[in-house]
Amino acid sequence: MPRAKRYYDSGLIWHITHRCHKKEFLLKFSRDRKRYLVWLRQAQKRYMLKVLNYMVTSNHIHLIVLNAKAKKHDDVISRSMQLIAGRTAQEYNQRKNRKGAFWEDRYHSTIIDSNDHLNQCMTYIDMNMVRAGVVSHPMKWIYCGYYEILSGRKRFTIINTQSLLHLFSQKNLLGLVEHRRLAVENAIFKNQYLVRDKKWTEGVAVGRQPFLEKIKRESAGKSRGREIKQEDNSYVLKDIQVPYKANFPPKKSF
User: Fold this and answer.
1) What sign for the dihedral angle of Cα 135, 203, 59, 2?
2) pLDDT by residue (tens digit) across 10-42?
3) Most exposed among 83, 92, 138, 230, judged by the fewest C-beta atoms under 10 Å?
4) Signed CA dihedral, 85, 91, 96, 100: sign only
5) CATH code linked to domain 12-221
6) Quick check: 72 pLDDT over 70?
7) pTM of the prediction?
């Protein structure tokens, strides 16, 4: 089962991305996307996973989760991802009489700073299918957190609205709805988030510089292989890419 990097400290916000094997469109039918959401809800019930946002596309998923009640021997996120990814793949392969991998080897997790950086990451995810050219507005794609929040759906909800109200300092659900609506409408008006931004899906962490310095200090032995870089108005903690250099002995001359 795919495993992410192990640093699931309590109180951190995580952006998780998981892609289908070889980027195949294994979630292209609504039935399969709905089954993914069914197991996402099961993870909420079993492990108290707090979901702040989600997006299920035809070949990958996005989740923003709050690891609020992590315990030393109870990794909420990895247990949840094992359940969701495993059951989704199992059902699909059985139904299609298919063998082989459904997901890529690993899902990637990026720590997200709160406040404005969380708002940016939320909107980046909301704009996914607009960015892909599938729909003209996030409300036209029902398999996402933006649609759930703005549609006012009461049954089979996934978003932990209480956590979002606290994180965005909103007094009630109407305030949260307006907050998310304005964020997306502003992005559409300014033509933002229409190009893939790797910092949200490949970085170790995104946020303010002091926040990233703290994450780097607490990442134990991995900190030496990581560096903080500024990108636009954000700082990104990245794994240092060491170029591969083959060390071959010199050729013998005869």
Assistant:
1) negative
2) 689 999 999 999 999 999 999 999 999 999 999
3) 230
4) positive
5) 3.30.70.1290
6) no
7) 0.89
